[in-house]
Design a protein that fits this description.
CATH topology of chain A: Arc Repressor Mutant, subunit A
Largest sheet of chain A: 2 strands, antiparallel
Strand content of chain A: 5-15%
Number of domains of chain A: 1
CATH architecture of chain A: Orthogonal Bundle
Oligomer: homodimer
Number of strands of chain A: 2
Helix content of chain A: 55-70%
Number of helices of chain A: 8
Chain lengths: ~140, ~140
Amino acid sequence: MPDQKKRSDCPVSCTLDVFGDKWSLLIIRDLMFTKSCTYGDFQKSEEKIATNILASRLKALEENGVIRKSQHPESKAKVLYTLTEKGIDLLPLIVEINLWGDKYFEIPKQLEAVITEIKEDKPGFISRKMSELKDSITV
Amino acid sequence: MPDQKKRSDCPVSCTLDVFGDKWSLLIIRDLMFTKSCTYGDFQKSEEKIATNILASRLKALEENGVIRKSQHPESKAKVLYTLTEKGIDLLPLIVEINLWGDKYFEIPKQLEAVITEIKEDKPGFISRKMSELKDSITV
DNA sequence: AATTTTGCTTGCATATTGCAAGTGCAAATA
DNA sequence: TATTTGCACTTGCAATATGCAAGCAAAATT
């Protein structure tokens, strides 16, 4: 589990105390851009997160109020993970990470569509996507 | 040193392979927002990074082309660290981290001015600051 | 010439990560 | 009803990364 104690009052430092690792933002990414919403879904993503790390990150993200656990509508055996509003507010950050990554790495073709959409109208994309994400937790 | 092998082709994952730790972006922050440009400057910042970690992060950031080492104009004993264009392009990301951090943590008064400036005109702030940072490496 | 500053490196204890195997409960299948 | 499978984790342990303190060489200062 990542630590709790904050190193300073700087907003960057505080934010990194929560997300400053290689995995947390990938979970957020999955919640935003793929339909991932269960433990198994997160395990399936390309980067192959270790199961104990996944569990510890989900716990930390929940404790930080970024995601929320609830009953899966399909089955009692499943757990539904969803973003909170605090988590949805990370969208602009994830968008900027995508744009920087797109500029400096080779991006697979399947992702180009979204990146192009973002580049064409960033504020528009963000507000549309934020509404979409907020709707999905209000319903 | 953080690892080199990339976990997937996802831009978020690739970016986290470079910055997915608690320290790298604090160094970038210092280069952007304080006048920090030497090893000693980075050590002085509030979060108190360990010297070996600082060395390994500076090395990794340089290897990733995000910062550059050069001769300090004042003295041969000093090393001057500066952002490359690739590093300057991280500004929008740092801005978003600041905004999220500002929204969800208590921010010290001294930082409020910058945050307010960002909130009032984000694109304007970013383009002004980017120019400023680019100028400082061109001169 | 001696001391201090600067930018590191080294050694070692502790913490975090990664991997593999295992557990408990719900649901599907036989 | 008994058994197997799926799902969400937990546990143990080895490998890696971090944090702390001390040390070190070159340059600058005294």
